[in-house]
C-alpha cells in the first residue's frame, strides 16, 4: 500500500516461487524510491492454499487472502459456525473477526446480497418442484445448479431441503484470512479494492491502450508511453478516491460522459477573442467540487 493510501497492484501466479522472488525485489525497489511504509498483498482465492500462504509468510509479506468457504473444513465449520456480532461498515458491508488458534479470519456479510442469494435459491427450488412434478428428473441431474439440491434414491428423486438449509450459512458472505493487524473493516475494504484494481488494469490495457507500444522499439519512447499511461491510471484512481470521500454516487461511465461533454470554443466579439465553455451537465459540477478544482469561467478573454 502506498503512503498516500493508493494500492499498487501486480500479478503473480499461484505456486510460482520465482514470481514471489521477483515481487519481493520490485517491492523493495518501490519502497526505497517512493518511501512506502507498509506493503500488504491482497489476493483472491487462487492464492489461498496452505503452500502459497506459507510461501508468502516466508517471503515476509503480510496478506489479505480470500478463502474457499465450502471446501475448507476450518472455514466452513469453525469460522462460519462461530457466533458473534457483526460490525456495520456500510449498508452493503458488515464484518466479524474470528480467530482459530493463531489464524485470523474476517467474515464479511452483505445483507443485500444475502437477500438476493435467498431469492435465487428459492427460485431454483421452485423450478425443481415443477420439473419433478412433470417428471423432468434427467434435466435436474445433468444441471450442476440443480443437482446440489437434489436427493436421488431407489424410491425416486426429491428435493434435498437439508442441503438448501445448509446453503443458507453462505448467503451474502465471503471469508478473508489475514496476517495483518488492520481493523476488520479495513481488511474487508482492502479486499473489495481488488475488484476495482482488476478493472483499472483492464482499463489500462483496453481504454488507455498501454499495449502495444508502436515506438519503433526505442527504449525511451516505450518508457515514456508506459509512464504516461500509468500517470493517467493514477489520475483515474485519485479521482475515484475523491469522489468516494465526497460521497458522490455517480456511475463511472456517467462521470466520463458528463466530463467529456465539456467543450470550449473561441468566439470573436467586437474585434476581441473570447474563450467560451459549455455549461456543466449531469454530475460534472459535483465532480469538479469533489476534486477541489474550480470549473473554467463561462467566458474569458484570450
Share in helix: 40-55%
Count of DSSP-assigned helices: 11
Number of domains: 3
Work out the number of β strands: 11
Mean pLDDT: 82
Oligomer, anyone? Answer: single chain
Shape: extended
Summarize the main sheet: 6 strands, mixed
User: How far apart are the first and last residues' alpha carbons, in Å?
Assistant: 44 Å
Computed over alpha carbons, the radius of gyration is 26 Å
Topology as H/E string?
HEHEHEEEHHHEEHEHHHEEHE
The largest sheet has its strands arranged as 1-2-8-5-4-3
Low-confidence stretches: 6-11
Strand composition percent = 15-25%
Structural class determined from secondary elements: alpha+beta
Write the topology of this structure.
Blueprint: H1 17-34, E1 40-43, H2 50-58, E2 62-66, H3 73-79, E3 87-90, E4 93-100, E5 103-109, H4 111-133, H5 137-141, H6 144-147, E6 150-153, E7 156-159, H7 161-167, E8 173-178, H8 184-207, H9 219-245, H10 252-260, E9 264-269, E10 272-277, H11 284-291, E11 299-301
Parallel strand pairs: 1-2
Antiparallel strand pairs: 2-8, 3-4, 4-5, 5-8, 6-7, 9-10, 10-11
Structure description:
The protein is α+β, with helices and mostly antiparallel strands. It folds into 3 domains: 17-105 and 174-199, no CATH class; 112-169, no CATH class; 258-301, no CATH class. It is built from 11 helices and 11 strands. The two termini are 44 Å apart. Residues 6-11 have low confidence and may be disordered.
Amino acid at each position: 500500500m502506498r503512503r498516500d493510501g493508493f494500492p499498487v497492484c501486480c500479478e503473480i501466479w499461484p505456486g510460482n516461487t520465482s514470481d514471489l522472488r521477483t515481487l519481493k525485489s520490485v517491492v523493495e525497489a518501490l519502497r526505497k524510491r517512493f518511501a512506502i511504509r507498509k506493503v500488504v498483498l491482497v489476493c483472491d482465492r487462487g492464492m489461498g492454499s496452505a503452500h502459497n500462504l506459507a510461501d508468502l509468510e516466508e517471503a515476509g509479506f503480510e496478506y489479505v487472502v480470500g478463502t474457499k468457504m465450502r471446501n475448507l473444513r476450518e472455514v466452513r465449520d469453525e469460522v462460519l459456525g462461530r457466533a458473534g456480532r457483526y460490525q456495520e461498515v456500510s449498508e452493503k458491508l458488515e464484518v466479524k473477526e474470528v480467530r482459530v488458534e493463531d489464524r485470523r479470519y474476517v467474515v464479511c456479510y452483505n445483507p443485500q446480497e444475502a437477500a438476493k442469494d435467498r431469492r435465487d435459491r428459492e427460485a431454483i427450488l421452485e423450478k425443481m418442484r415443477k420439473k419433478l412434478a412433470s417428471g423432468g428428473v434427467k434435466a435436474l441431474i445433468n444441471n450442476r445448479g440443480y443437482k446440489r439440491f437434489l436427493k436421488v434414491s431407489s424410491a425416486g428423486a426429491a428435493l434435498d431441503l437439508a442441503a438448501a438449509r445448509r446453503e443458507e450459512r453462505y448467503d451474502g458472505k465471503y471469508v478473508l484470512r489475514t496476517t495483518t493487524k488492520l481493523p476488520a473493516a479495513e481488511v474487508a475494504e482492502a479486499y473489495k479494492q481488488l475488484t476495482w484494481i482488476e478493472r483499472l488494469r483492464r482499463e489500462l490495457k483496453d481504454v488507455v491502450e498501454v499495449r502495444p507500444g508502436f515506438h519503433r522499439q526505442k527504449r525511451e519512447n516505450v518508457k515514456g508511453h508506459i509512464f504516461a499511461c500509468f500517470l493517467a491510471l493514477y489520475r483515474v484512481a485519485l479521482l475515484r478516491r475523491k469522489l468516494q470521500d465526497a460521497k458522490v454516487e455517480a456511475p463511472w461511465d456517467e462521470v466520463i460522459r458528463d466530463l467529456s461533454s465539456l467543450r470550449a470554443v473561441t468566439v470573436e466579439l467586437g474585434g476581441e477573442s473570447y474563450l467560451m465553455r459549455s455549461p456543466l451537465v449531469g454530475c460534472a459540477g459535483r465532480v469538479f467540487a469533489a476534486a477541489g478544482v474550480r470549473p473554467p469561467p463561462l467566458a474569458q478573454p484570450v
